[in-house]
Records
---
Amino acid sequence: MAALSFSLPYAPVLNGALRRVPPWAVYLAGTLPLAWIVWLLFHNGLGVDPVKEIEHRLGKIGLQFIVAGLAVTPLRRWGGLNLLRFRRALGVLAFCYVGLHLAAWLVLDMALLWQQALGDIVKRPYLTLGMAGLVLLLPLAATSNDWALRRLGGARWRQLHRLVYPAAVLGGVHYLWLVKAWPPEPFVYLGAILVLLALRLRR
Ligand code: HEM
């Protein structure tokens, strides 16, 4: 039986245009949100609590890159849009922003009080979940290069990189857990993550 396939109306045109975009351009574009945060910092644009604002913005951007990376396969399978060449850049950027998010918390919020930071990570479930998500991203970041891909072999490398699925869920639940009221945004992120994962089950 022929596989059911869909295609976004302008997918072939977009694919043609995207073939001319080098992956380094995605890395470069990915630094813009960070540059924007730095610009806001030096122009008093981060509100009354700049530390919280920096922390929040970095965490949100990290989550957005995780979602973008997860969307690559469903977009190709269900929309005919081929963004595979950019997936590594999206993953590396996600890891960098989540790493900066942790660093901002450790340096600006916890003033490098390691014992207290560790105690908080153990005591507060939303921090435990976030940390677990980051730890799962570590081996992915470490093997996001051609050398590691060759050493591991395609099958094992792909298997290892499925760790992004639980990492994304942990990141989404971390966000949902820390909000006090029930704003829609964390539900939208977690919902998007779950839908993108569920689409993988439907081949
Ligand atoms: C996959 C890993 C992670 C993701 C995707 C993530 C994402 C997020 C997001 C989206 C927010 C809320 C931003 C907003 O409200 O606009 C947030 C807040 C926060 N995250 Fe993370 N995070 C991760 C890991 C961590 C880790 C490892 C830590 C520290 C151990 C951490 C500490 C915090 C803190 C302290 C807040 C702010 C809480 C508050 O407002 O009181 N996160 N994170």
---
Amino acid sequence: MYGLVNKAIEDLICKEFGEDKWDEILEDSGIDIDGFISMDNYDDDITYSLVGSISRILGISSDQVLETFGKFWTTYTATKGYEDILLMTGNNIEEFLFNIDELHSRITVTYPEMIPPKFTAYKITDNHFELEYRSKRSGLAPMVIGLLEGIGDRFNKSVSVSQISTIDDSGVDKFSFIIN
Ligand code: HEM
């Protein structure tokens, strides 16, 4: 994945736990990279190793790491020059949920080799949506939970997000998104 993602993981850890903890995580992961470059494309193994090491060093599950990171992502990207794109994605939660693929399409101009996920949104009622998530990568569904919670935060809404089916049992990761 592009360095933007790994850099965001680094920033999150440094902000919450300090640089010493980050150094410990890097050492545990065996990654010998001094500073990620946003526009460089890194092997996905690097991101997965970071998640594994964070989980070991902080004593939380990989799912928790991914979910926390997902929630951080919307605020992080907003402060890193993507607020305009976030604004174009939607003026409210409903518009936003239906335009996530559009958001990534706009970003492929900057990150031409990116392999974005695909989201299909369904409106069940005015405050209840379902989203299917498809990716070439595996194991990132917990990150989607955090991302969807982050979208709720962006619009100052309390939301309840849960996974209602997994790729293993139904062939697709599907989430319920309820605006409380
Ligand atoms: C302006 C905001 C955003 C930017 C700049 C952005 C950019 C990116 C980039 C660069 C990647 C790495 C892909 C690669 O290198 O192949 C990525 C991955 C991903 N993005 Fe976004 N994104 C944004 C918002 C969102 C939002 C709101 C969601 C909500 C669901 C989302 C869902 C994901 C997921 C799940 C991945 C992991 C890759 C995968 O599933 O295969 N992104 N994004």
---
Amino acid sequence: MAEPYLRVENLQKQFGPFIALGGVDLEIYPGEVHALLGDNGAGKSTLIKTLAGVHQPSGGQIYVEGKPVNFRSPRDASSAGIGTVYQDLALNQLMSITRNFFMGREIKGPLGTLKMDEMNKIAHDEMLKIGIDFSDPTQAVGTMSGGQRQTLAIARAIYFGARVLILDEPTSALGQKQQMEVLKTIKRVRARGDIGIIFITHNEIHSKLVADRFTFLALGKVIGSGTLQELADEDIRKLMAGGAEMADLEQELAAI
Ligand SMILES: Nc1ncnc2c1ncn2[C@@H]1O[C@H](COP(=O)(O)OP(=O)(O)O)[C@@H](O)[C@H]1O
Ligand SMILES: [Mg+2]
């Protein structure tokens, strides 16, 4: 297999005495969707915030294309090709699609005037590449569906250089049709072949629809990882529940 674009070795993060990440290993390859699964409190958000330069690790090492890196800020991570799409998407509903696409990175002419035509075209074309043909990017983001907003945030991250795209629960706040739209977008990005995706989800079905590889976190540790072939179906159910015996819990539930 090719070199992983991103590699994490024994990553640790403590908040005071509390160990949120207790030594996590992870590899992200170009052209691969890597599902990161785990119950609430498992450490998923802490892990991706550390990869995104929001948190500094307490131990361990992050490597980008084989070289050790230390992200002191989200800007560092973003310049290294780590693009993060958070659940709230960081979009301004009242502003146009194009203005949201560029937000702070506008293309300007010599006198500082915004090159709106050029920016509209880029915003339109970049979103079209991954599946939405929004003919009028001068419309406000508020007019877009939840799935389209995800696509906008993803297209923006890619245009500005993401080689690893971190998607934090991109399907969790959406209706079922919108969820399928987002999964389609994820597959289209995957099909480019040059971008690795970390897909954080609570949803086992969604992860199986798009992911090549799975990592399960519980209490800050990796409790299982591998391809679908490597992980038997029943294992996945146990791993989703943080290693607890789901069957026991279901029996208890049925007994009430
Ligand atoms: N900034 C913080 N300060 C203290 N504890 C935190 C902080 N962020 C997360 N935690 C704790 O770390 C654990 C993992 O949280 P988190 O990474 O958000 O899990 P997940 O995203 O998998 O639900 C939780 O017990 C949470 O309370
Ligand atoms: Mg979280």
